User: Fold this.
Amino acid sequence: MGALFAGALVLPLGVSGALADTADAANVTVPADQVGVQLYSLIPWVEDVGLEAVFQRLQEVGIQNIEPYGGNFSDLTAEEFKALADKYDLNVSSSHYNVDEDTFDTTLEYVKTIGQEYVGSGGFPDPGIDTYANTLATAEAMNRLGKRSVEAGTGKFFGHNHTSELLKTYEHNGEDLMAWEILVAETDPKYVTFEVDVAWAAHANVDVPALLRKYSDRVELLHIKDGDGLGTADRPTFTNLGDGENKLQEILAAAADGNIEYYIMEYDRAADGNSFVTNGFEYLTGITPPYIPATTEDVTFSDADATYLVPSVQGVEYVLDGQVLEPGYYAGKGDVTITARTLDGYTLTEGSAAAWSHTFTLDSADRVTVPADKVGVQLFSLIPWVGEDGLEPVLGTLADIGIKNIEPFGGNFSDYTAEEFRAMTDELGLHVPSSHYNTDEDTFDETLEYVKTVGQEYVGSGGFAAPGVDTYENTLATAATMDRLGKRSVDAGVGKFFGHNHAGEMLTKYVHEGELLSAWEILVRETNPEYVTFEVDVAWATHGRMDVPALLREYGDRVSMLHIKDGDGLGIADRPSFTNLGDGDNNLQAILAAAQDTAVEYYIMEYDVAADGESFVTEGYEYLTGLDAYAPTAVTPAEVTFSDDDATFTIPASEGVEYLVDGTVVEAGVHAGEGSVTVTARALEGFVLADGATAEWTHTFTAPDTDGGDQDTSGESGESGESGASDDAAAGDGGSGSLPETGSDVGGVAAASALLLLVGAAILVTRRRQLGVNAG
Assistant:
């Protein structure tokens, strides 16, 4: 058995060095009437254009045989399938279908009607090969099924391998054999044959050419399949024939000396079925099939959004800097040139454009900025920084930079009670409008209690509530969950519930009320705006090939928060490389411009686990606000007010400002005034007075108006008493006109007494003047 495993011998079982060296120079070919295709390969293509359109193209290429799988039969009777295949001259040599013994007569009836010559499935019948005893029992089942098939006039029964049948070994008749070999040895060749999948066999590190030579009399069908990572990766990456690592030329050479009836091409769910079939047919037969004409559609560019749209055209792919672009919107920056090229099996029609260029410009005068009090940072960005310096020092630095808002994630809360976290942020002047925290329905009351204490306005997580968006039904169920959580949150006095997107919610699409929509859009439409809002991560949305400015214009009334995020490879790479704001490909200026006319309350900077957190926050703050980081905050002192009625002045409480009288700091509150009072304002550390702000107030206090005027006081008595009051006022200490600070009981009584004496003296003077006039 060992010689069948690759690596046991360099060129085992007689494979010549000349063959190995010259395989590329003179390819082994196969007669076209022996070439077929397994329709499992073409699932995406069939879903896109329909089974009949695919059959028509197979006929055009030159394919004469097909191997359906069970899904191809589900909507058609045997007679209908036969008629469709006959229409395009396609022979159904075999299929991967139901081989359950209890319903095998039904299977035989179907496959005999469509004209099959072999009967089998994509594996082996029960009970399988997980034990030696089961392997022998499986061989017996194959014999029984094969006898029934032959006797029904259909043909031999076959088994199709993956890796396990070649990796499992058991002792059999004193020899260590693969389970596959035991099945070969224990089945009757009159009734049973085998279909060898050459890629799965190679992935099991079997020397496939040697296997075919050794068992040439028992193998009548081949799955011709190529890929990378064969024998090394957990699962290989399949490719068009000839593009992978499999030794197809050696395999075909070995098969040529055997009893192979059909060479069935396969590429599990090929992304481009037409390319796979066209390329594979030419590879196997040496015959160039006719090419399908393809006409490109223009790439369109928008300076308003700084985006470009790559169209979807059958047979055409669009390329930027060597990277193939999927259809959809992309952020544009600087000079962009897109080229088009055809896929295998297609040719551009004459006159079709094949290149588009555009220069995106950004006028610095039109640069969009955001008020500093709306800017925040998601603390997930700062994990390395917090890990090195600690959370509280990092938060202190954020406040120094100018950050007003933070969005923690669950890990930030783990070491703090809600009260402790609130006290820490309050002391630093940081607001917590939202967090990415636990939104499990069973424990949501605990979440609400925590986040309400820390002062949140919105409740959500770094994703969406269960059950998710993996099916249309689950998407609708997720919307219902969000409504329930949102109502609980609003009723608790916290605020709306929000969902935060990645790319998946944008890329996943379903037909909803007759319209093809992203799962994200369905969630927006199916949730109650009274209870639910959304936080749009602009980088993940761009990576999901969404036109984010257009998205915000359409759904801006449902978006309360943005994750402002930049990166390279958005929409192109498997995963983007995030960057500081303004350094990546994302069209942040167009996004910020679109956001101005929406319900967005907070612009939360994010850079997943930034290597240099302080640099990210500093540059991001300056990018978003247009202000200098670490610069003092400009403040306008609130006005000092004066009252002659009660001879007081009021010092307001004003953030970042302290007030002074005669060089002494005066606390906020009401103070007694006397004579001429000048109050000045100055900025505290970390603040600066705004340009043009008033910083000084002066007032001269005067006694209340006690002039009697023309008041008639004749006939009054008690002149001596008034005179006495005047004398007392002149002699007493209270006559100086000074007023003590309010709040002292003793001082209040003294002030009132002094005021009464002054009034009495004034009345006396007035009375004497009147008497003098009368006497004159």
Notes: The two ends are 149 Å apart (CA to CA). Confidence is low (pLDDT under 50) at residues 5-25, 708-776.
